[in-house]
Design goal:
alpha/beta; binds iron/sulfur cluster; two-stranded parallel sheet
Length: about 350
């Protein structure tokens, strides 16, 4: 059976190597090649002796996803469609910002939570991604940006687990991926540059936060249970008060490590002034920031964004209530890469080459 190098954290890989009679430090060397230098072929790992290179090439695999297409939005956002070995499509979105590149990655093929505004939810659920399939989204995106610029600021700087799937329903693989991303001998990313989003799988929030000082984002989207039950059916299991109380009592949430609440604003659904006034009261006692995102319309959901003046009134009421609010621009909506639009729809093929 072929083993997958990217399925293992460094600690695990050292153990696996030791169990096969390979010196543990070799795991660090292999990780350096793969994650720091982007070299995946063991035969090119020139500081390993030849028998070991051959053994790795025979017994181990280092690639889990192939880049199939890249679609580029008018605003520079790029959607990567990647293919797993069993033929599933996985999407990742590369979002250029002023001094950084954020990569939004997926954790499942489809999603079982079936949020009514989300194109991924409409796909249903196929399976969890492996750690290697999560990590390979980062590797393939890095291949894409590498060489485009020598400026560090334009390389991959932030990772958000907000693509297809509910990360906390694939928690062991997500935790292993975070360990690889933050390991100084692998990607060496600062944990504060990583954000994991959840629809509110309450019992799994603490184990996630314990992995390190990463950011937590919570998809709230509504303040009343009868509305949130519709938008995020998981709410029937963990209602608004249960979710918010758990965060209020969470010791690992603090002003230095606030919760990022996401609120997708939908016309006539959750955009009333009453909702805007209730939100600050509900979030009281939780160190938090609130991102308001006008709905990105797509064919799988009946929702529309409110008019501009409604959005302005809504956000003004939130400010008055004392919340720290950011109104997020839609990025990549023209290529179905915006929040809630990832559905692995067949796109007009574009070559996966670097954009010039
Ligand atoms: S919004 Fe997130 S949790 Fe809800 S169905 Fe879509 S991918 Fe799943």
């Amino acid at each position: 059976m072929t083993l997958q190098l990217k399925d293992r954290s460094l600690a695990q890989l050292r153990e696996d190597f030791a169990a096969r009679g390979i010196a543990r430090y070799r795991a660090d060397q292999v990780a350096g090649w793969i994650y720091r230098h982007g070299v995946e072929d063991p035969m090119e790992m020139t500081n390993l002796d030849l028998p070991l290179r051959r053994q790795l090439a025979d017994e181990w695999s280092s690639r889990a996803l192939e880049l199939e297409t890249v679609q580029r939005s008018n605003d520079g956002t790029r959607k990567l469609v990647l293919r797993t070995r069993d033929g599933a499509a996985v999407e990742a979105v590369l979002i250029p910002e002023e001094r950084r590149n954020t990569l939004c990655i997926s954790t499942q093929v489809g999603c079982p939570l079936a949020c009514s505004f989300c194109a991924t939810g409409a796909l249903g659920f196929t399976r969890n991604l492996s750690t290697a399939e999560i990590i390979d989204q980062v590797c393939r995106a890095r291949d894409l940006v590498r060489g485009e610029s020598d400026e560090d600021a334009e390389r991959l700087s932030n990772i958000v687990f907000m693509g297809m799937g509910e990360p906390l329903l694939n928690l062991p693989k997500v935790l292993e991926a975070i360990r690889i991303l933050t390991d100084p001998k692998a990607f060496a990313m600062a944990p504060r540059r990583i954000t994991v989003s959840t629809a509110g799988v309450v019992p799994r929030i603490r184990p996630l936060l314990e992995v390190g000082p990463i950011n937590l984002a919570v998809s709230l989207h509504a303040v009343r249970d009868e509305v949130r039950d519709e938008l995020v059916p998981l709410n029937r299991e963990y209602p608004v008060e249960v979710l918010l109380d758990s965060l209020r009592n969470e010791e690992l949430v603090s002003p230095r490590r606030p919760v990022f609440f996401e609120y997708t604003l939908m016309k006539g659904v959750n955009d009333s002034l009453e909702d805007a006034r209730l939100l600050p009261r509900l979030l009281r006692g939780i160190p938090s920031k609130l991102n308001v995102i006008p709905m990105n319309p797509h064919p799988d959901a009946p929702y529309q964004p409110p008019a501009g003046d409604v959005i302005d009134r809504f956000t003004a009421a939130l400010h008055e209530g004392g919340l720290r609010v950011t109104l997020r621009r839609n990025r990549g909506a023209d290529i179905d890469a915006a929040c809630g639009q990832l559905a692995a729809r067949k796109a007009a093929p574009q070559p996966p080459a670097r954009d010039s």
